[in-house]
């Protein structure tokens, strides 16, 4: 066994896993705040990537990524205010169907605004970051890590950890936990629950924008219905594996799924073509047989 190859595969897996972790953390944050499963999360990635692409036409890519975050936050708040909030308290199936409808609407909007072509974000080769971004690729002891992977680790992983710290130690984290336990009780205590929920959707959209911008690095901006939308589906096994109500669980599960995908690509893909795309879902099925609430989800017993 080539140790250098194993280390390289693990680092690349962690780089992709960090992106999965960021996106899934935002997804779980929305579920904790509203108990709404956002089936449009893949489209949030798509919109975030296109926002970054549009800004990159006028600014350096790193500046475009950071400038896209407040725009993504506003986008998330607008979605919550205009689309989700009127549905809260309705039948669960109705809310699910509405978020699926939202996904189709965002797909169509992206197609109208940006067209079906992939976007390269200023790079001559869409598999690379533009030249204006500092090249952090390194090759030491036979271990090579691309600049895109290094940037993913530098930006995505600390962001996921920052979100965990925000929820655990900040005033907003306390308010969010109160709203997630009982919105009615939170309102009675004087907590502005609608604002807390809107901020959760905004943060989720920001996380998706970060993930979308970097996942798009291997496939341009990703055409609507392609690439990023398909990549966004990985959020569901990550969130289920970590536990739908656990942001730290989503981060751990994202890193774990990234590692498993990387080693599956290395050792199993040649024997079982397509197994890399299927294995996250297979793992979730196996884990749910043993732990229905995921690895870190809370076991709730409710009286009916």
Mean pLDDT over the full residue set: 82
Q: Give the percentage of residues in beta strands.
A: under 5%
**Cα separation of the termini:** 55 Å
How many domain regions?
1
Stretches where pLDDT is under 50 for at least 5 consecutive residues are 123-127, 218-225
Strand arrangement in the largest pleated sheet: 1-2
Tell me the layout of helices and strands.
Elements: H1 3-34, H2 41-56, H3 61-84, H4 92-114, E1 138-140, E2 143-145, H5 147-169, H6 171-181, H7 183-188, H8 193-215, H9 228-232, H10 235-242, H11 247-267, H12 275-290
Antiparallel strand pairs: 1-2
Gist?
Helix content is 68%, strand content 2%. α1 runs antiparallel to α11 and α6 crosses α8 (193-215). It is globular, with a radius of gyration of 19 Å.
Please provide a written account of the structure.
By secondary structure, the chain is mostly helical. It has one domain. Helix content is 68%, strand content 2%. It has twelve helices and two strands; from the N terminus they run ααααββαααααααα. The protein has a two-stranded antiparallel ribbon with strand order 1-2. Helix 2 packs antiparallel against helix 3 and helix 6 crosses helix 8. It is globular, with a radius of gyration of 19 Å. It starts with a helix and ends in a 14-residue tail after the last helix.
Keywords, separated by commas or semicolons:
mainly alpha; 2 strands; two-stranded antiparallel sheet; 68% helix; 304 residues
